[in-house]
Amino acid sequence: MNAIWSLGQAMFTKCIIVVDEDVDVQDIADVTLKVLNHIDPERDIQFTLGPVDSLDHASRLADYGSKMGIDATRKWATEGFGRPWPDEIVMDAKTRALVDGKWKALAKELGME
Fold first, then answer.
1. Domain 2-83 listed as CATH 3.40.1670.10
2. pLDDT tens digits for 74-113?
3. CB 72 within 8 A of CB 38
4. Which of 10, 38, 6 lies closest to 22 in space, CA to CA?
5. Which of 5, 38, 60, 112 could be cross-linked to 72 through a Cys-Cys bond (beta carbons 3.0 to 4.6 Å apart)?
């Protein structure tokens, strides 16, 4: 995150979320799932102050404000994480089809279809 904030125009980036390479960053559901499950807020969210875009109306001063970085990557032993990182649980196709069918039926029952 700090490396990105030090790169030219990237210094104006207000929020940065870092995920592992196997996360499909085009799939907001996948990103959300990984971010919310892979962080310890105290350890993995960093706040810093620095230059912000002059059009940022939320900053405390013109051209200067806060930024947030989220490290949603798997943690390693070298980072002080002493437990094994769990494998992702993946539904098989049959179970996924069953669950998807139940969601559709529930939506119809609730008049949401």
1. yes
2. 998 898 888 988 888 888 999 999 988 898 889 888 988 7
3. yes
4. 38
5. 38
* Helix spans in the chain (H): 2-5, 28-37, 41-44, 93-109
What is the value of pTM for the model shown?
Answer: 0.77
DSSP 8-state class, residue 71? E
Residue entry with tokens 């971010």: 35
For 9-47, letters b (16+ CB in 10 Å) and e give eeebbeebbebeeebeeeeeeebeebbeebbeeeebeee
Q: Is 63 left (phi over 0), alpha (psi -120 to 50) or beta?
A: left
Cβ-in-10-Å burial (0-12, 13-18, 19+) of 91 comes to exposed
Place of tokens 């013109």: 62
